[in-house]
Amino acid sequence: MGRSKAKYELGHSHLERLVHYYHFLGERVDLDETTRVSSQQLAQLLTMDDTQVRKDLAAIGVRGVPRLGYRAAEVVEAIRQVLGFDQIHRAILVGAGRLGGALAAYRGFVKYGLRIVGVFDQDLGKVGTTIGGHFVYSTNELETVIERNNARLAILAVPAETCQALADRLVRAGISGIWNFGPTTLTVPDGVVVRHEHIVVGLAELAYHLQNEPGSPLPVSQDTE
Amino acid sequence: MGRSKAKYELGHSHLERLVHYYHFLGERVDLDETTRVSSQQLAQLLTMDDTQVRKDLAAIGVRGVPRLGYRAAEVVEAIRQVLGFDQIHRAILVGAGRLGGALAAYRGFVKYGLRIVGVFDQDLGKVGTTIGGHFVYSTNELETVIERNNARLAILAVPAETCQALADRLVRAGISGIWNFGPTTLTVPDGVVVRHEHIVVGLAELAYHLQNEPGSPLPVSQDTE
User: Pick from B12, B60, B74: which is nearest to A220 by CB?
Assistant: First the structure.
């Protein structure tokens, strides 16, 4: 509505930074139409240069005013649109174990457009109970619930050995995006998007930075012979 | 030991890709000293160009042989060293709720050098129980357990409102790296590294790619007036 449409390529790091800006601004309770935010404030978040912030925002069409900064609401709205948080993504969640339970209970997803429409488990002891406010279905009902809710996204929190078979089944049932928390890689047909949630990336970054504290040079794997 | 040491700057995306290579190779049961892996195989993992793989590995001192590829074991070992997975990172985990429980129970951390030496909760109903094989201590004992185990890393899986006070206390107790799963940003002194685990980054990426499927151009926030 009154906005141009353009195909637009967003790199992973850029996208990640936008999520951080969005999250940070979304946390602030004082946000109203007049609230301003500076590129320096956003840069501090990620301990980086404010030039990067200005680039990131300019690339999605948001420009600040010198000395006044950005209108916070405009930044939030632009990120919402570009990342698709303004749309509703109906998702099913497979696996009602510890991790599945944590995901089912997480209320923050709403801000990102995610709506969980069904939780599934193959353990009959869990079927029929409620987890994080969601009814737990038997995995036998996967296709029915996906179709009934027109779900396109699936969140997998199941053991590695069941992931691939499950993914195949979900794709046949019409799922086009898989958010995989299982510790395995998946093979899917073209047109299906998989995001493999690698919780250890964060750990890796911490471990890396801890060993790179001043005075502790990092051994680089390079033969000196 | 026979390797040069050099300070070495690793960008976030580079680091993330290295973790993926490491994880992928670590999953393969057939790995031995003779196993080879090609840059094409690794590139497929992340649906990207194999030139990127060669750059990523060259930057950490690993070079392949034309037509033969890389020695898989060498790739694994180089990543282990560069990312510090060959060291033991003793960590405490605060918060024995759903997410804390999932983290406490996750066995995969061992491959990355993480050893959880204590789980804490302020809920007296949980103190003294076992979660994911770990004894749950009262948060009153934080300082004692950190000191006794010489822990430098803390994993926070607590509600947003308690994160900052807890972080302050942990830093005073000698923690220099915080892996924060709480939905909030933290302020820490220089020299302390924080990694804010943003589970929604993965969701953002999925949502973004789903709306960017062929034929559905992305609205860019840009006024056309």
Answer: B60
B5 and A224 in contact by Cβ < 8 A? no
Q: Residue ranges per domain, chain A?
A: 12-83, 89-201
**Residues A208, B184: C-beta atoms closer than 8 Å:** no
Q: pLDDT class for B4, splitting at 50, 70, 90?
A: very low
Which amino acid type is present at position B16? E
Question: Is A120 strand, coil or helix?
Answer: strand
DSSP B100-150: HHHHHH-GGGGGGTEEEEEEEES-TTTTTSEETTEEEEEGGGHHHHHHHHT
Question: What are the phi and psi torsion angles at B14 (to 5°)?
Answer: -60, -50
Q: Looking at the partner chain, which of B2, B15, B219 has a beta carbon nearest the beta carbon of A3?
A: B219
Q: Could you give the 3-state DSSP secondary structure of residue A160? A: helix
Cβ-Cβ contacts under 8 Å, B192 against chain A: none
C-alpha neighbours within 13 Å on the C-beta side of residue B207: 28
Of these ranges, A40-44, A194-198, B83-87, B148-152, the one predicted with the greatest mean pLDDT is B148-152
CATH architecture of A12-83: Orthogonal Bundle (1.10)
Judge whether residue A1 has pLDDT over 80. no
How confident is the model over B45-80, as pLDDT tens digits?
A: 776 789 999 999 999 999 999 889 999 999 999 999
Inter-chain residue contact B218 with A8, CB threshold 8 Å:
yes
Topology (CATH) of A89-201: Rossmann fold (3.40.50)
Q: What digits encode the pLDDT tens for the residues A141-190? A: 999 999 999 999 999 999 878 889 999 999 999 999 999 987 777 889 98
